[in-house]
Amino acid sequence: MAPPSRRFGPAGPVVGLFLLAGLVSALVLERQLPAGLWWRALVAPDPGRLDQLAAHYVLFPRFAVALLVGVALGLAGAILQQVLRNPLAEPATLGISAGAHLSLAVATLWLPDALALGREWVALAGAGLSAAALLALSWRKGLSPVTVVLAGLVLSLYAGSVSGVMVLFNHDLLIGLFLWGAGFLDQQDWSMAAFLAPRLAVLALAAALVLRPLVLLGLGEGGARSLGLSVAGARLAGLVIAVMLAALSVAAVGVVSFVGLAAPTIVGMAGARRLGPRLLWATLCGAALLWATDALVLLAPVTYRELPTGAVTAVLGVPMLLWLLPRLRTAAPPVTAATAPSPRAHRPALLLAAGALLLPLVLWAAVAAGRGPDGWEWSAGEALAAVEPWRLPRALAALSGGAMLALAGATLQRMTGNPLAAPEILGVSSGAILGVIVLMFSAEAPGRGAQILAGGAGAAAVLAAMLALGRKDGFSPDRLLLAGIATSSISGVVVAVLMAGHDPRLQTLVTWLSGSTYMVGPTDALAAALLAGIAVAAIPFVARWLDLLPLGGGVAAALGVSPPLSRAVLFSLSALLTAAATLIVGPLSFVGLMGPHLARMLGLQRAAAHLAGSALLGGLVMLAADWLGRGVIFPYQVPAGLLASVIGGPFLLWLLGRR
Questions:
Q1: Which 3 state secondary structure label does DSSP give 188?
Q2: Number of domains in the chain
Q3: Is residue 124 part of a domain?
Q4: Residue 60 has pLDDT above 90, yes or no
Q5: Domain interval for residue 275
Q6: How many DSSP H helices and E strands does the chain contain?
Q7: By its UniProt entry, which SUPFAM superfamilies does this protein fall under (predicted)?
Q8: Largest alpha-carbon pair distance within the chain?
Q9: Among 130, 129, 144, which Cα is nearest to 83's?
């Protein structure tokens, strides 16, 4: 007999969400006016009744927009997971949301006249430019899934980091952009619903017309081509539809997190195996999930009415996803490796040795060179001794933090075979962030030691929960990553709520979240260097596991490697490295994700060389970012995490374009 969670297939969670949304919406409406007047308020409100006018122009349009945006995100997520053959793909993967966010920030600061056309059109233009850049970067590779994913991630990180720098130095002017980015669904009339409905209908029809080519993509490139399909053309069609869906949703209500990932994942695990039913059920699940979440936000006490719906979607999506993960087999498409052969270094040991010898010189230069009141200068002798206590801890912490996160990222990407795997999606950074936030808002002026202890406790709690979840299914990589993303969404909700509340302590939190080395002292720096050294020394002991695990669990077991045990150890090591780096210098997303890809581009393919190269490159990137951040706009400083993305993003995009 099928378990209850699978007995009804995808209809179970979808119908449940619609029933919840309808019930909560009825409670919201009942507080506004009697049930007998609902229909009249919808179709012909009495101009003399404020309660009917409020329901007609505020509540009903808001429900409609929630449904429409949920439809767009659910359908976009399902299409992207099929086209990119990656269970972690979602609209945010392509950088569409970050592009729209950046365009609004630029217009607010330097082109305010553009906002007179309407915020949605400015956001749509930014999303369109991001999409055009994505297609241009990946066209030479036939829109291969790995290239599209990497280009989208780099664009997203780059646009997000530039927006972060702008917000950091123009916080008061861009606080409204913060709120819009959290995904508020407030409406004042039916204009946005009228804007979305016909466009979504056209895109849904387009998705139906390309259903067969998308199904054939599931056979792999060889199988699809043997049936006469133009693989690049099918991918282009799917990507264009998904990009337009995501752009419309962002332009309408801002950034709505988690729905594009959760909806197709939930219905896929609930039994929607074929693409056609999966697209349909994912569309309905996205609509129901966002509607139910928004209705719950409206039902909350008036004091908390301003919670951002886009972030609070995790409140419903996370528990459902975590509940389904241990019970159901994932139906997510397998990750596809790159079709083109990767470059290989002829002498990787020599390349790594040269980098290791160069490292102390670069560290010394980062401490000696700097900008002061009289401009750029090179310190030596007594001048060097005077600045060393200030510069050396920061430089050493940046170097060590970048190395640890790059090591964690390389381990995850090799263990899972997924180019999207990165330290921040482990969920451990989320635990550290929540621990620090709880301390900041419960203690008066907490010290550095207290912050590290609180963050460590939060990270340890999340790690324990993840390990307990992973034991039930042999530490399946896809499930661990999905559970990590779900857990990370919780911290996103908390940060968004704090932003909406205009708390004065927010500026300190934003600075820390941007990856800053401002508060690092000698003890923190030495601890980070020691942990990074231990992690590098452990590479020879785990390299064989990481060489064999990508070949499949059966092959690894036949060669004497226990997949569950090795995955548990590797996951724990990655989580510990991520937590340590996060506690010392804050969450640095760019290095942990892109350091491993830079190492591969240099030809470091075997596990040992790849891990060592990732650590070396990640550390160097962060060291350079910290050095530039100290002096590029002296006496002001730019956080190393943001600057690493701003500087490293274009370089990586250039490399991707040349591949």
A1: coil
A2: 2
A3: no
A4: yes
A5: 8-93+182-324
A6: 29, 2
A7: ABC transporter involved in vitamin B12 uptake, BtuC
A8: 85
A9: 144
- Whole-angstrom CA distances from 512 to 76, 177, 432, 569, 617 are 33, 20, 12, 29, 23
Model-level pTM? 0.74
| Cβ pair 70, 18 in contact under 8 A | no
Residue 497's CB is within 10 A of a number of other CB atoms, namely 17
Compute how many other C-beta atoms are within 10 angstroms of the C-beta atom of residue 186.
12
Q: Which of 308, 324, 340 is the last residue of a domain?
A: 324
377 membership: H or E segment, kind and range = strand 375-378
Instruction: Tell me the pLDDT tens digit for each residue of 231-278.
Output: 889 988 998 898 889 888 888 888 887 788 889 988 988 888 899 999
**What is the DSSP secondary structure assignment for residue 59, as one 8-state letter?**
I
CATH code (residue 453): 1.10.3470.10
Whether residue 272 is found in the same domain as residue 364: no
CB 485 within 8 A of CB 88: yes
Residues 170-204: tens digit of each pLDDT: 767 776 666 666 678 889 999 999 999 999 999 99
CA–CA gap between residue 250 and residue 280 (Å, rounded): 21
Using CA atoms, how far apart are residues 355 and 64, in angstroms rounded to an integer? 57
CA-based torsion, 450, 451, 452, 456: positive or negative: positive
Residues 427 and 368 in one domain: yes
